[in-house]
Design brief:
Blueprint: H1 5-14, H2 21-42, H3 73-77, E1 83-84, E2 87-88
Antiparallel strand pairs: 1-2
């Protein structure tokens, strides 16, 4: 499959992208290079390669949601710019 300049013009029109002549030629060449590379990849023998969603062995980094003791309220509020009735006092950000 080969992408023509007319294909790029059509996609640009549908996407409402403005492109000059240089960009049309540039994208036509680049898209064809991508397709050629995909054809090369399509020829690679992957018969004994296990399917994977990611190349790195990722692990879940989430910790269990457990109740633990935390910083005492007074210590947490000790560095707050403003506190009121045992809570952080922050500027109002919404009208209403």
């Amino acid at each position: 499959m080969k992408i023509t300049r007319e294909d790029v013009e059509n996609v640009a029109l549908l996407s409402r992208l403005e492109m000059n002549e240089t960009e049309m030629e540039q994208y036509t060449v680049q898209l064809n290079a991508i397709l050629e590379y995909a054809e090369v990849l399509d020829k690679v023998n992957t018969e004994n390669v296990e399917a994977t969603a990611h190349v790195l062995p990722l692990k879940n980094v989430m910790r269990p949601d457990e109740v633990k003791s935390s910083l005492p309220r007074e210590a947490a509020l000790s560095n707050a710019p403003e506190a009121e009735d045992g809570y952080f006092k922050v500027p109002k950000i919404m009208e209403g």
